[in-house]
Design goal:
Length: 324
């Protein structure tokens, strides 16, 4: 594999039909905000909508801090130490947006990013309902009771340059989880509200990490198989075991075949180009995908593949810039 940022997820997800095989690729995406040059980060105050500090706000602070520490990307500034340093210099995290305060703090700890947040939504709602009763031949009556619980959590996050007080990003992170239960002739047991809340916290934390750090996503790629292109099945088998060099060789072998009708040859070029896209070989990929499109110029499928390759290259370039 020619790029360490593209990793093949080793299994076949789904065989859509006899002519198409879909597989999952795990691809690293760039962070939504380019924090290149910032090596230090600290979680500042996360408060409730009314300006108070509650246990859920502290839970979010802790979850964000843990996620940052586990990422091993930034130097995460210890909150207690930071509070101590700021108190010594008569500074406050809640006043960090002030230009003078930020400049003073920047002199103490250097360039870095402070994260502030406001919990905009933190609510659990529950609905109950009953189905119409059903009477059976034996005279028994059955009625299904339903319970539906929904937890909503949303947090507005700001990333601020410590030295300049410049807002680097502002985004609302939101999640909702639903749980339903039912029972016959009685109300079902209570919904585990803490579990829904925990799931929301985890999701919001994941969104936060995608905001500040590169992250992995799974992308479904569909290869086109054909009885006249047995090399394709063999190539896919090689990809399954991580043998990209051999897989690409087999895809190339299929594309080099002569005297194939255009639609078959187009499949071969497409497969080669698709594999090259997710091996970081974007120039070669575009060349082969354009060849497939030239053989089947009415195919929106091949045009979409060309656009996908261009989009992947753009994301890979952003990722490279962030990591360098």
């Amino acid at each position: 594999m020619k790029t360490r940022h593209l990793v093949f997820f080793i299994f076949c997800l789904l065989v859509i039909s006899c002519s198409t095989t879909s597989m999952l690729m795990t691809v690293t995406r760039p962070a939504e905000v380019n924090l290149k040059g910032y090596e230090k980060i600290a979680i500042g105050d996360i408060i409730n909508a009314d300006g108070t500090k509650g246990s859920h706000a502290r839970d979010i602070e802790d979850e964000f801090t843990t996620a940052l520490l586990n990422s091993n990307i930034f130097e995460v500034l210890d909150r207690q130490h930071l509070d101590s340093v700021m108190s010594e210099h008569e500074l406050s995290l809640t006043g960090i947006i002030d230009e003078t305060t930020s400049a003073e703090l920047g002199k103490i700890i250097g360039a870095g990013v402070l994260v502030f947040g406001r919990v905009q939504g933190d609510k659990y709602d529950e609905e109950t309902s009953k189905a119409d009763p059903t009477t059976y031949k034996d005279g028994s009556v059955h009625q299904t009771h339903y319970r539906k619980g929904t937890y909503n959590l949303s947090v507005n996050i700001k990333l601020i340059d410590i030295v300049t007080s410049r807002i680097l990003a502002s985004k609302t992170l939101s999640e909702a989880y639903v749980s339903t239960k039912s029972a016959d002739n009685k109300w079902p047991e209570s919904i585990d509200v803490d579990r829904l809340y925990s799931l929301c916290i985890k999701s919001v934390s994941g969104q936060f990490m995608r905001l500040v750090a590169p992250y992995d996503v799974e992308v479904k790629c569909s290869f086109q198989t054909d009885k006249l292109l047995p090399e394709v099945d063999a190539a896919i088998t090689q990809l399954k075991i991580g043998e990209w060099e051999e897989g690409l060789r087999l895809f190339q072998q299929a594309a080099d075949k002569k005297d194939l009708e255009p639609k078959i040859s187009a499949k071969a070029y497409y497969n080669l180009g698709l594999a090259q896209t997710y091996n970081g070989m974007y120039d070669e990929s575009l060349q082969n995908l354009k060849k497939a499109f030239s053989l089947m110029p009415k195919s929106k499928f091949y045009m979409e593949a060309i656009n996908t390759c261009k989009a992947e290259k753009e994301k890979a370039d952003k990722l490279k810039e962030q990591l360098e």
